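Job type: complex structure
Entries:
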Amino acid sequence: MTRQTVNRILVVYLLVVWTAVAVRCDRFPLTWVPMYSTYTPIEKIPVVVIDREKMERGILVTHRDGSQRYVTAKELNIPKTHFWRLYYQRMFGAPPAKHTQGNMNLGTVNRWIRGLGENEPNFSADWDWRILRSFNKTLGYEPSDPTFIVLAEVESEIVHYQKKDLLKKDVSKPERMTLRAKVQWKDEWLQRWKNDTL
Amino acid sequence: MTLSKSIGRAWNSFFYEGFSGESLGLLRLYFGCGLLLYHVAQFFELLTLDPTGAQFYFLEPMWHFALLGIDHHVPILSFAVFVLLMMATLTMALGKYTRTSIAIVILCIFFLKGNRDSFTGDVHHRYLVPIQMLFLLLLSKCGHAYSLDERYRTVKSRVEDWEASWPIKTMQFYCAFFYFWSVLAKLRVSGWAWADGGQIQEELLERSVMWGLTDAGEAVRNQLAFHMAQHPDLLMFLAHLTLGFEALFPLILLVHSVRWRLIFLLGVTLFHLANFVLLYVGFIFLPVVFLIFFDLVPVHAWLKEKFRCYVLRRRSLPAPGSG
């Protein structure tokens, strides 16, 4: 390669990586490095407490024939960290961090580039559909099967800390609550199932 | 005219000076060795799966998987590709079929990362700097020194300093601005509110309380993170420190003193270590890329000399039972 060619490569390379930053592109290997950037000050901080025993037991599912059982990480054959995200985040409709990062404070130009309306999010997903599609396809169930999973349920304990209590180092009595997530199959999804679209 | 000449001079002196063909070859060698460990840390969880078990349908395939229509995981394939990745990384480090090896490493990373980050849609950023380095190594003549390719080449070629410098300097530039962009992102997304330390407080609480609480309300594990979360002043200081060091990172490109570079990068390494211990942030092995900020020729010579002395000392020791 001649020096002139290298100069051209460098200019294109630098333009590409800086453009990715400018337009908030976060598609590997390009990035605008948004990790841990999202923060909205709140007075009450919610924290999920993992119940390892419950998580090991799995996600409670109901089949079309009414029978119930637990689906585990081992059965789905996914890493434990991902099962944790599935159990405590997606089941509760919480998106991955990249969605939050990509949606928060997106400027006018970046909204225009993506053709987004005023309140239209940059990233969104129907997690209920995706979860049940994934479970059923992974386990080889068809909508007409009596074993087809129509409901998935999990429970999660949330602890809330008040910022003023943390300032006083008073952590002995945080507010606790138990949340329950139910992901239910809708027959209107049958066409989506046939088309196999996310 | 003078301005354009000055820019041209600065451009040339930054991108085309400072390293030799040997430096580039050694960077490939040491970075390759570091990558072997890096890959294991990054893809270990894929190897914990049953190779012949269920094929999970991804909740959100990564962009290139979506483009290629890959919507489920084939575990046995991940095992095979991981073996290929390790072999290609090794041959890359040794400089055997260097370019081909680097291309295979890049493809394998795309495949394995695509699988790992598609299960539930959380895309991690730990391979961003390494993949840029691999791309630049692919374009460079990094296989022309300290390589098996060069050893068996009948017509020896010499790598000019400018040919060796530009890939390394571009890597330095990318790495330095990777940290700088991180500050931009924080300010673009959250504004100056990020500097109040509240984000760090939330993360510390999340990563400590997640394991459960004792009857007295103390975290069962990661107590240090739990206690730190109760010191907002300290967290505000740490937030400012983080923003400061990330914003000033590009200044390393102007620092020529090896000692100051080393001190700064040791500080950054400590930052990654603390993030790993307190928040489980997986950038613990990223400092392997900081090799780009040093000329490895004197480092290699020093290590070689140390190793030679060690071997000589071992040889001069009387064998057990001989006296």
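Summary: Chain B touches chain A through 80 residues (CB under 8 Å). Residues 161-190 of chain B form the longest helix (30 residues).
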